Amino acid sequence: MGADESINQGEPMAAQEKGATLIVRDAGALALVQDGGRFGVRHLGVTQGGAVDWVSLGWANWLLGNAVDAAGIEITLGGFVVEVQTSTTLALAGGELGATLDGEPVPPHTRFRVDAGQTLAFGQATSGLRAYLALPGGVAATPFMGSTSSVIRECLGGLDGEGRALAVDDVIVAAGREPAGEARVIETPPRFTEETVDLEMVPGAQIAQFDGASVFATFNERWEVDARADRMGVRLIGQALRNGAGGMISEGIPLGAVQVPPDGQPIVLLNDRQTVGGYPRLGALTPLACARLGQCPPGTQLRLVPVSPHRTRRQMQAQFARWR
Question: The pTM is what?
C-alpha cells in the first residue's frame, strides 16, 4: 500500500448505498460535518479538526447505535434548517439551540423520528453553543486522511472534500440504514448551565518559567471567555501572566494547549489549531475540559483546576465506558 493510500482510505460516496437524505434550507451561522477528528498527520502540517464538543457528538451517535466518532453535523449558534426527504430516525445532543420539528420542540439528548416533508429547524442558543445532529450510520462523505471532518482553513473534509461549511441546497445523506435495537436513553445528560465552569488542566510545558504570582493566579483567579473564540482557540481574560523565559523555539501543540502570548492573556487552542507554536504554555486542558469549553459562550466565568495525567486517563476511560 502506498503512502497516499494508507492515509486516504474510504469508499467513495457514489459506491455507497444511499441512506436517508436531508436538504439544507438555511445554513445558519456555521454548520459543519465533523467526526472524531484527523490523527497521525500533524507531522504533515495538517491539524486535527473534529467535533469541538466530542462528548456531545458521542452521545448523539450513541443514541442511534453508531460508532461514537461517526460523522455528524456540528451546528454552532443555531439558525440551521433542513427539510427531511426520507423518513428516518435522528438524534440530537449538545447545547440547547431551540430545535423544533414542524414547530414542535425537540429536546436535546434525544432520539426522534422524522418523516418525509417535515422541517427540522434550530433557533437561537439558550444553553451552550453547539448542537450535534446524528444520522443513522453517520454522514456519508469520503474520508480524507482518515476523517471526514471539515477544516475550513485547510480546505479539507466535509461533503465535497473542500472543508467548507454547509450551504443552502446541500444534500446530507445518511451512511447507514435505520438504527437497530431498542431506543437508548441518556440517564444523566450533560448540562451547560453552571455559573462558573471548572476546567481541568494538566500542568506542564513551560509552567515553571512563569513567576509565582502568575502560577498562583492561574489556579486561584477566575477567567472570562473572550468574544475572540472559534474552533481554533479561545482567549481568556483575566490577570496578565508573566513568563521570564523570553523567546523559544516553536514546538508541537496538543489539543487544549494553554499558550500565553506577550500580553499575558491565555489562549486555549482547540481542534483547528496550528500544529506548532512558539509561545510558552502553562499546560493543556484535558480532552473533557476542551469539550466543555466548546459550549461556553463569551462572558462565561471559568476556573482552571490542576489535574494529574493519571486522573485524566481514568476520566477518559470512564467516559468511553458509558458508551459501551
Answer: 0.93
